[in-house]
Write a structure and sequence with these properties.
The chain is mainly α. The chain contains six helices and no strands.
Length: about 130
Amino acid sequence: MTSAQRSLPTWILIVSGILALMELGVSLALCYSPQSVLETVDLNAKGVDYVIYMWAARQFALGVIFAYATLKKSAPMLTIAYIFFLVMFVGDLLIGITQKDNGLMVSAVVMCVVASAMLFAINRRR
């Protein structure tokens, strides 16, 4: 284990682990109970199931990446995961703006702040 790996505070690992579990949970919810996540979407429309499974795969991949980086206690891997997380939520913010969805905009801003703060916390000791 390198000194950079040992220097990660426990709270960063806990937050990253919680985010990994949340991403995996969203993925499972999208696969097994999409109506609980997508209240305003017609789930019977052609092609919707394809998009839902693509979204679930994205969430699953991010959850696995966060879990692996957290278990390895790897600052570089967590940095990449949080950069992806930040980019993803910037995209959600833009979608919220174009769709005039205040809930999506607020949640995206909050998660952008969380991702930015985590990036700062992980990399401030380098």
